[in-house]
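We keep the chain:
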Amino acid sequence: MSSSDRSSPLPSSSSRLAVAGSARGPSRPGEGATLSGRTLVRVICTAGSGALEYTHAFVTAYTADHLRGAVAQRLSVGAYELLSNALNFGSVSSDIVIELIESDNMVGVRVANDAIAARVAMLTEHLVKLKTNAEQTFLEELRRSVTGGIPRPMLGLARVAHEAALTLDLQVQERRISVTAQCRR
């Protein structure tokens, strides 16, 4: 990302940012690419609803039954954090969609929702920090969550990138954002 890009964190009407998880080292070929493949599960819910716990329980059970244990656990963390963000910060005027997607060698969870421009800018800036240093960003957010720092801690995506070592991909089209957390099968 060039220095001129950093001065304006608000993405254009159609943009993309990929962040590789840090726990496994450098990203592997194809891990930063947008995951496309077969949709295994698709759940639609609304912002502000109580869908987090029961949807997460379903996704966790489904992945445990269909994927290797370590991969299922990583996707469970990704699903919880991505859906929690969408439910808490998404627009109440549009649906939130969570999907489990698989390709031949990759699997992931994708959550899409509408958001206001300021939230999209905050998310984009946070993902740039995670891409630069996921471990450091995780530790900073963890400290802020313990001390009650301002602005509000953004620990969820840091957990996904650092703890679960999932590659994060952000796509933005107008107000619709789509965040994918993915890994090799």
